[in-house]
Amino acid sequence: MKKPLLGALLAVLLLGAGTAPAMATGHDAVAQRTTAATATDTKSQVGIQAVDFAGTVALSNCSGSVVRTPASLPSDPALVLSNGHCLETGFLGPGQVVVNRASTRTFTLLNSAGTGVATLRASKIAYATMTDTDVSLYQLTSTYAQIQSSYGINALELNTVRPVQGSAIKVVSGYWKRIYSCNVDGFAYQLKEGDWTWKDSVRYTSACNTIGGTSGSPVIDNTTGKVVAVNNTGNESGGRCTLNNPCEVDQNGTVTVRQGINYAQETYGIVPCVGSGNQIDLSRAGCALPKP
Length: 292
Prior knowledge:
It is built from 3 helices and 16 strands. It has helices at about 25-35, 35-45, 145-150, and strands spanning about 55-60, 65-70, 75-80, 95-100, 105-110, 115-130, 135-145, 155, 170-175, 180-195, 195-205, 220, 225-235, 245-250, 255, 260-265.
């Protein structure tokens, strides 16, 4: 997985998954030196929607974003989307699901230029898992209206439909303040990494060469400006189904390894599971997220 980063020096693990936090790599150091230039370059590229850093957040070890569903109200407590492997409590085991666990985690809210403008605080982990998908949703102590009124920043909207193969996307990392531009290359029926298996994962074209710390970044469709997935892993060294080296498994069990290719988990399936007041309700019609 895309390694989560905790502080400056930590023990090695995945691109944001595993059993212990990972240390920043040499690529991470390069990324840190090139954030401003990259942001400027990507925003100058052709696209229907202007995609920038507004609404993204930096976690202590990963990236994330303030998100809403189409039905979310301004008065609802806001949600932050990231990866399940980015939890402050460490990686979740296969089959493990967290719902409504208290948390006081903080997030640095970024404006369009990538400048931190506020510290947001969680009240709980509303939902998290690394089974079938790799997602975490934190509920904040602030409402969408309070964030918009105080900082002029709106939440990113979760798309309600599956991403489309070939569509242009951007992966926006609040941790590195870096934007990657590429396309949806296709989908992995199953993506296996170590003990974890994810279903119907988004595969990027090679231009999105995401690095450690980009875990949890929103994947934004250029045409709609909506979040279609959450960045989570990539095959770093050509290994077969091992940590930091996920493999694709098709319906027939055939395994494919794509060294240097990165992946994300679709987010449209989150929308049916968010009920009144932005509360996670896994019993709602159409909700297929794993249950505890």
